[in-house]
Design brief:
This protein is α/β, with parallel strands linked by helices. Helices cover 39% and strands 15% of the residues. Strands 5-4-3-6-7-8 form a 6-stranded parallel β-sheet, with helices on both faces. A two-stranded parallel sheet has the order 1-2. Strand 1, helix 1 and strand 2 form a beta-alpha-beta unit. Helix 3 crosses helix 8. The chain is globular and about 60 Å long.
Length: 219
C-alpha cells in the first residue's frame, strides 16, 4: 500500500502534518502525446472559427475565481489598449458567479469536448495558466500546464505550488498571483520572445511505469 500525491508540495504537506507509515509517491498529471501535440496554429484557428490574423491569448479549463481568472481579465483590459487585434479566448466551464467582461474581443467557447482542447491551445499565441494562492493552488498540479507544454505553445503561469518548482529555471514564464500588471508584462514578453520551457511533459504512460515500478519495489 502507498499514498499517491499529485504534487511534491502536497507530498511534503502530508508527510509533515500526518506522518503516515506508508510511502508517499508523487504522480503528477500527464498527457497523451498522440492528442496533445504541436499543430498548425492557423489551421487550428480556422477549425474553431477563431480570427486567423489576430493575436490570441487565453485559458483552457475552469473559468473560476478560485483559479484567479480575474487576473487574466484585468491583464486583458491592460493589453487591449496596447496591442491592436488582441483577443482573449476563454475555453472552459464558467462559474455561475463569474461575469465575463463585456467586450467584442473576448471569445467564450463554453465547455468544449476534450478532443477540441488541443486545437484551442495550439491556436493561442500565449496560453495562460491562472491560479490563486490558496490550498488548492499550493498543492495541485495544473493539468493545463503539461498540456500546454506538450503542445509547444508559449505560456505564462501563476508562480504557485508545483508550478513554482516545475518552472523554477524560467522566471520569465511566471507571474505572482493577483498581480495583473505583472501578468500583462509577462504576456507581452512572451508575445515578443515566445520562450518555451525545455522541460518534458510527462505522459500517462510515464506515470503508469513509475507507479508499476514503485509497486514492484514495495511488494
Amino acid at each position: 500500500m502507498l499514498f499517491r500525491s499529485v504534487s511534491d508540495p502536497l507530498r511534503e504537506y502530508i508527510r509533515n502534518n500526518y506522518r503516515p507509515d506508508l510511502p508517499i509517491l508523487t504522480l503528477i498529471n500527464g498527457t497523451d502525446p498522440a492528442t496533445f501535440r504541436s499543430l498548425n496554429r492557423d489551421e487550428c484557428r480556422t477549425r474553431l472559427g477563431f480570427p486567423v490574423n489576430a493575436t490570441l491569448i487565453g485559458v483552457t479549463g475552469a473559468i473560476s475565481s478560485s483559479r484567479g481568472i480575474e487576473d487574466l481579465f484585468e491583464a486583458h483590459k491592460i493589453l487591449r489598449k496596447q496591442i491592436p487585434g488582441l483577443y482573449l479566448v476563454l475555453a472552459g466551464n464558467k462559474d455561475k458567479d463569474i461575469m465575463l467582461p463585456s467586450s467584442p474581443d473576448i471569445i467564450y467557447t463554453g465547455l468544449l469536448p476534450q478532443e477540441k482542447i488541443p486545437y484551442v491551445i495550439n491556436s493561442l499565441d500565449v496560453s495562460v495558466i491562472c491560479n490563486r494562492d490558496s490550498a488548492f493552488g499550493r498543492y495541485c498540479f495544473p493539468q493545463k500546464l503539461v498540456e500546454t507544454i506538450s503542445c509547444g505553445t508559449p505560456l505564462v503561469a501563476a508562480n504557485i505550488g508545483a508550478t513554482k518548482y516545475f518552472l523554477e529555471d524560467y522566471p520569465e514564464l511566471v507571474y505572482e498571483s493577483s498581480n495583473s500588471q505583472q501578468l500583462a508584462e509577462k504576456i507581452v514578453a512572451q508575445l515578443k520572445n515566445r520562450t518555451a520551457p525545455e522541460v518534458t511533459a510527462t505522459t500517462w504512460a510515464d506515470i503508469a511505469e513509475k507507479l508499476d515500478n514503485e509497486i514492484s519495489r514495495i511488494k
